[in-house]
Design a protein that fits this description.
Low-confidence stretches: 127-137
Order of helices and strands: EHEHEHEHEHEEEEHEHHEE
Number of helices: 8
Shape: elongated
Number of strands: 12
Largest sheet: 5 strands, parallel
Helix content: 25-40%
Strand content: 15-25%
Distance between the termini: 48 Å
Strand order of the largest sheet: 2-1-3-4-5
Radius of gyration: 18 Å
Mean pLDDT: 83
């Protein structure tokens, strides 16, 4: 039995019930909420994953995601957006909010279950890294005044903490772990996002731009090799 608890938030009651039924068949414990307001009144900290619609009532899925990511108790809970808003800009906006995946409606239940399984697997893998002590050398990468701590998921620049969403942190960790190597967009997508998840290449560019702006003087160390990709160059 899979000991994972999932919350499905969607104002389409039939869809909520269908997802709950099928996810329970996979062994998950599933609750439903028919609005963001109802969901936010619940104890969200008990959930391993939230499946979240975007277009709902007074509080949208975007707003609920921002509220969760702004709360230290909830920020680490994976979010999958399930929505009819399927333009590239909408997808990038959802991923920029820290979502772990973005599924466009209409979708197959089989696809949703596969995405859920993949995101939970990645989240469990990340949790195993966090168990290592913060003093473990394998959990730290430093470059001059820049430090990444994978156990605490913390980035500091010259002693000041810089908040990085999960994907930005993982991309920076990858580049700092392989200084001098240029990664193509395809390599970033394969290593940072699950292979079965379709993510537009522009998402890589967006995250690189954000990283450069947040790292101050160290942002210039992230170089672009036209036609090839990005990497960290001393």
């Amino acid at each position: 039995m899979i000991n994972k608890k999932i919350l499905v938030v969607d104002d389409e009651t039939t869809l909520c019930d269908t997802l709950r039924f099928n996810l329970e068949l996979e062994g998950y414990e599933v609750d439903t909420a028919y609005s963001a307001e109802e969901a936010l009144a619940m104890d969200l900290s008990v959930y391993s994953l939230v499946l979240l619609d975007v277009m709902m009532g007074e509080i949208s899925g975007w707003q609920m995601a921002r509220i969760m990511k702004g709360n230290p108790r909830l920020a680490g809970i994976p979010i999958i957006f399930c929505t009819a808003k399927d333009s590239e800009d909408d997808m990038v906006a959802g991923l920029d909010l820290g979502a772990d995946d973005y599924i466009s409606k209409p979708y197959s239940i089989r696809n949703v279950v596969a995405r859920v399984r993949s995101v939970l697997r990645r989240a469990s893998s990340g949790a195993s890294v966090q168990q290592a002590g913060p003093g473990d050398d394998d959990c730290l990468i430093t470059y001059e005044g820049l430090t990444l701590n994978s156990a605490l998921k913390r980035c500091t620049v010259d002693g000041t903490e810089v908040r990085l969403p999960r994907k930005e942190f993982e991309m920076l960790w990858l580049m700092l772990s392989h200084r001098g190597k240029i990664f193509s967009r395809e390599e970033f997508l394969k290593k940072i996002w699950p292979e079965e998840i379709v993510v537009v290449e522009r998402v890589v560019d967006v995250n690189i731009t954000r990283l450069r702006s947040k790292l101050g003087q160290y942002g210039r160390m992230i170089v672009t090799r036209s036609g090839y990709g990005y990497g960290w160059q001393d």
